[in-house]
């Protein structure tokens, strides 16, 4: 239903306004840890306030969804569908003046593969990436299509990265690591990057709140999304699991891992 898409667009807009307000009002203090999130990680003031804005809007407008968020966890409102929320993907960027961070919101029932609606909002640029299952993916109304010939890969290369990531980075012409998984996956959907690789050496890192919306956007733009062992990615909506994630413009690009 178009109403669902409009709902999450409105939520993303509300969160964006709150993020910019908090960053302007509190400055460096916006990064202050104020609580521990549902996944056991510290939550900053700007994270929590953005999430609170979304929860407030859902309740005040009586939107027909449960809520699953990075900070608060699951809020059961008695519905069969749940909005999956990362109120601020790229928190470090936002808190340190790096203009690459986003709000990510999706709607699904049980798992990642049945997500039906998703939006990733680039907060600094006020750009929307969104998708409806079976109806394509869009950037501000323009339909998205993967490319696969840019020779640019988005690869996590921090100290916890898998050795394959370092080996791959030495073979390709261009690599980037930008600090917002949702926006980086949208680069694949938009045809800017060929592949997105978050592969850690010990265990997975990304959660469903990080990538639910971007997963649908990549799929609807013609790309594929797999886990660290190249199986189709799936995660329970209410699960606390973390996984390695690879998004690619086409299956042939995955041959570098075989």
From TrEMBL:
Mg(2+) binds at residues 70, 86, 88-89, 210. One of its GO terms (molecular function) is inositol monophosphate 1-phosphatase activity. Its cofactor is Mg(2+). This is fructose-bisphosphatase. Belongs to the inositol monophosphatase superfamily. FBPase class 4 family. It is an enzyme of class 3 (hydrolase). Keywords: Hydrolase, Magnesium, Metal-binding. GO terms for biological process: inositol metabolic process; phosphatidylinositol phosphate biosynthetic process; signal transduction. Its EC number is 3.1.3.11. PROSITE patterns: IMP_2 (PS00630). It catalyses: beta-D-fructose 1,6-bisphosphate + H2O = beta-D-fructose 6-phosphate + phosphate.
């Amino acid at each position: 239903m178009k109403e669902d898409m409009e709902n999450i667009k409105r939520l993303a807009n509300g969160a964006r306004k709150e993020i910019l307000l908090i960053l302007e009002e509190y400055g460096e203090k916006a990064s202050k840890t104020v609580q521990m999130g549902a996944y056991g990680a510290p939550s900053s003031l700007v994270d929590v306030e953005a999430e609170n804005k979304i929860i407030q809007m859902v309740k005040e407008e009586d939107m027909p969804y449960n809520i699953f968020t990075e900070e608060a966890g699951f809020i059961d409102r008695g519905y069969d569908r749940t909005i999956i929320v990362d109120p601020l993907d790229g928190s470090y960027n936002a808190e340190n003046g790096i203009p690459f961070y986003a709000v990510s919101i999706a709607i699904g029932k049980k798992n990642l593969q049945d997500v039906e609606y998703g939006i990733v909002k680039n907060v600094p640029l006020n750009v929307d990436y969104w998708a409806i299952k079976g109806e394509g993916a869009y950037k501000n109304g323009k339909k998205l299509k993967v490319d696969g010939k840019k020779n640019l890969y988005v690869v996590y290369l921090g100290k916890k990265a898998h050795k394959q990531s370092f080996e791959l980075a030495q073979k390709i012409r261009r690599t980037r690591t930008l600090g917002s998984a949702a926006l980086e996956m949208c680069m694949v959907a938009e045809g800017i990057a060929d592949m997105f690789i978050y592969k850690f050496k010990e265990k997975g890192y990304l959660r469903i709140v990080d990538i639910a919306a971007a997963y649908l956007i990549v799929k609807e733009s013609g790309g594929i999304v797999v886990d660290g062992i190249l199986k189709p990615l799936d995660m329970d909506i209410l699960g606390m699991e973390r996984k390695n994630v690879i998004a690619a413009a086409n299956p042939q690009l995955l041959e570098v891992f075989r």
